[in-house]
Specification:
By secondary structure, the chain is α+β, with helices and mostly antiparallel strands. Helix content is about 50%, strand content about 15%. The chain is built from 6 helices and 3 strands.
Length: about 160
């Protein structure tokens, strides 16, 4: 006798692994996929799979991405749907997400922006930045340029 978990894992493993890895990849690349102006107004929440209509070896599941946003932004994003699909499928190298569905949130429910990993500057980066800004006499300008430089280095 073998435990039931053994064949279930074998059968469902490929589908579930791909599903959650794919959603994680979409979330990680979300700002690049949807654009900076929409990244904090809409959030990918799940990928829904349906059985393929064709039978056989080459039949692949149909997938749709569900995006949470407000009603007004869903209208705007609806016009960007094809572009979003193209960018997502370019990310994966194949067209396996075929549709986008918008989940409408109430105005009171804010879409929380996706958290980005905060990186701190190393000592060498701090020294480099202060060395470049050292000749500046205007303290306000120096402080603003230092903040800008820190943001640029953190994103690199």
């Amino acid at each position: 006798m073998r435990p039931l978990s053994e064949p279930v894992t074998r059968v469902s493993g490929k589908t579930f692994n791909r599903k959650y890895i794919a959603l994680g990849k979409i979330i990680a690349e979300w700002e690049r996929i949807i654009g900076a102006e929409f990244a904090n107004r809409a959030v990918p929440v799940k990928i829904n799979y349906r059985k393929p209509s064709a039978k056989g070896k080459n039949a692949r599941p149909l997938a749709s991405l569900h995006i949470a946003t407000t009603e007004s932004w869903s209208t705007t994003l609806h016009y960007q749907k094809d572009l979003i699909l193209q960018r997502i499928n370019d990310l994966f190298g194949e067209a396996w997400i075929e549709d986008i569905k918008f989940i409408i949130l109430s105005r009171e429910t804010a879409v929380k922006p996706l958290a980005k990993a905060k990186r701190h500057l190393t000592e060498d980066e701090k020294k480099f930045l202060s060395h470049i800004l050292e000749p500046l006499k205007d303290q306000e300008l120096k402080s603003r340029l230092e903040k800008l430089g820190q943001d640029i280095i953190k994103r690199a």
